[in-house]
Specification:
Order of helices and strands: HHHHHHHHHH
Structural class: mainly alpha
Largest sheet: none
Mean pLDDT: 75
Oligomer: single chain
Distance between the termini: 51 Å
Number of helices: 10
Number of strands: 0
């Protein structure tokens, strides 16, 4: 079938050149030779009988980046010094071009070294570029943002998320619990989202230890507890009921259970 299509297209193209465009005799011979050369190349290298198997490049998955970006904007300064770089980097992140976003944000940290939102965005880009695994460079970016703005909720929020995505559940939970325990307005939007994430993380920790969640891990069970946990970032907006305050890690599992595994999961 492929040969019929190729030969038919070549014949139609030659007829248009010969009769519609009215090429001179020398031009017709040249065009015919070009078509024959193309058909010979197709005969040598073409494989029309084989089924197509397209593959996606590694960095074309959106991976919940839109929700991550909106969460960072909600926590940060909309009029910071590096806002122009953040807008461009966010566009790269939404398109799945995490490496390009990280490169741009590295330059932005030199232009605006005291903008914590730029450092947080750089940490997120580096985590996404490494397929959800936190790296020393990403850790440095989050820590630098926290040093610049100690009261900023973004650095511990996204560092805890990156740690949890990497399978370091206990470390991520400790950072999130410390953020939740900070004094401040209890009605801040990120606090309710963090409570829900902590409940889910407690359940994941309990499952990795082989124990059921403790009675104080939350008023309601987390979504899809018995299913495999997603491997990418979880959108910030979630349909979940209001949650009770989160208990300490010791309430989530028995101390006599085995140590956590290294399976990656996302709260």
């Amino acid at each position: 079938m492929g040969w019929f299509v190729v030969i038919g297209l070549a014949a139609v193209a030659f007829a248009i050149m010969a009769f519609a465009i009215r090429l001179p005799r020398g031009g017709r011979e040249f065009a015919a030779a070009a078509f024959m050369l193309g058909l010979a190349g197709y005969a040598l290298q073409g494989s029309p009988w084989e089924a197509g198997s397209p593959t996606e490049p590694r960095e074309t998955e959106e991976q919940g980046q839109a929700a991550m970006i909106e969460a960072r904007k909600a926590m940060g300064n909309q009029y910071g010094a590096g806002v122009s770089d953040l807008i461009t980097a966010d566009a790269f992140m939404r398109a799945g071009q995490f490496g390009a976003a990280a490169t741009l944000l590295r330059g932005a940290t030199h232009r605006n070294p005291n903008d914590p939102d730029v450092w947080v965005a750089l940490g997120n880009a580096l985590v996404a570029h490494s397929s959800g695994i936190i790296t020393p460079a990403a850790t440095f970016a989050f820590d630098r943002a926290a040093a610049i703005a100690p009261d900023h909720p973004g650095p511990p929020f996204f560092k805890g998320l990156a740690l949890a995505q990497s399978g370091e559940f206990e470390e991520g939970r400790a950072i999130w619990q410390g953020l939740l325990d900070r004094p401040g307005d209890p009605q801040e939007p990120w606090r309710q989202d963090l409570v829900i994430r902590l409940q889910r993380l407690d359940q994941i920790i309990a499952m990795t230890r082989g124990a059921a969640p403790g009675p104080n891990s939350g008023a309601n069970p987390g979504p899809n507890l018995g299913a495999a946990m997603p491997s990418g970032p979880v959108p910030v907006e979630q349909d979940a009921p209001a949650a009770s305050p989160v208990a300490s890690p010791s309430a989530s599992a028995s101390p006599e259970t085995s140590s956590p595994t290294t399976d990656r999961a996302v709260p």
